[in-house]
Amino acid sequence: MPQRQNSSWLTKEAAQTQREWYVIDLDGVVLGRAATKIATVLRGKHKPNYTPNTDCGDFVIVLNAGRVKLTGNKLKQKMYRYHTGYVGHLREQSAEKQLAEKPEEAIRRAVWGMLPHGMLGRQQMKKLKIERGSEHGHAAQKPRELTID
Fold this sequence. Notes:
Strand content: 15-25%
Helix content: 25-40%
Structural class: alpha/beta
Number of helices: 6
Distance between the termini: 50 Å
Largest sheet: 4 strands, parallel
Radius of gyration: 18 Å
Number of strands: 6
Order of helices and strands: HEHEHEEHHHEE
Shape: globular
CATH class: Alpha Beta
């Protein structure tokens, strides 16, 4: 007896054919608000045929990563920590220094915190392209402008 397929679920192949490209300009935008919008588009939750166990999201190009804002006292108080793997080698850096040296990493960490932590989340993170300046090399994909309210 053949299995009945549910038409509301999206297959992997169908999701890959429906992918689009978006470009977001982060000049003066708050980091957390931008990260939620980016994570929503990467997961595909903005689409009517969203399926939680399938990578049905779109590609996102982030421009002006160095001009993102943090509210309150986060520039001084927020710390980015990582461990080198050696005993006693916990490194930490303030958000002010992180945004000055590697703003791409701050945005990547904020978005990663809002995605599923597993194979699916890693697959969705590969669709995030972060640029420090206002130029990108993905003009051939004809990305659409995405605004953050």
